[in-house]
Amino acid sequence: MSSFDIVSTVTATEQFVTVVFKTIKLVKSVIDQIQDAPIQIQQRVGRLESLDSLAKQILNTKILQTEDINRILTRCESRVQSLHDLIQNTSFESHDSIRKKAWGAIFSLKEEENILKLFEMLDQEYTSLNTHINLRILTMAENIQIGYNSIDTGLNTIAQATDSIPDALKCLQALFITDPETDRAKLINSKGELVQGTCDWIAQKKEFVEWKASDGGLLWISGGPGLGKTMLSIYLIERM
Prior knowledge:
Elements: H1 3-33, H2 39-59, H3 67-89, H4 103-106, H5 109-164, H6 167-174, H7 180-191, H8 206-213, H9 229-239
Helix pairs in contact: 1-2, 1-3, 2-5, 3-5
């Protein structure tokens, strides 16, 4: 969707909101002043208000500002403007005894048919516009879900790849993650010295004794967060 489409749709929507507002006001004014306005026309005022609500939703939702919605709004504006002009052209003076007049004394049968026909067209346009909006929102929601699924798949792939790395390679990679001397100094500075005897138990472990008696190699200490791996490392480094 180009920036031109967005600007064009916003402009069309703003124009439609202006036209539908003045038309709602005019229709309500006429209905209020006439004794027997047809019930179909009284009920159809709600359709104008529904279209106005959709237009405001489009103005506030960027993903709805598309070329197809723009075309529907342009048609809606034309039909609402025709409705406004038809009612307004059948004018009467405000000082007339309008309450004493019947609908038929102001609007001819042909004019009434044209008014109802325009309202029927607007019913169809409302259905079309509402359907386009719902489909657009549904499509966007599906795309977002696909994106989330893609991220989850990527994270799972990374996790699986990490799990498949041999322990020896993981150990070598870990050597380049931190600067042991700097980290040790920061920990001692923030947490204080080790409590004497706290980590002495590791020196008695079979694995440690065998490692120390071997020809060398890496001693890999692993465990979950907060289990004391770093403090054990400090203990061993200070005593090796």
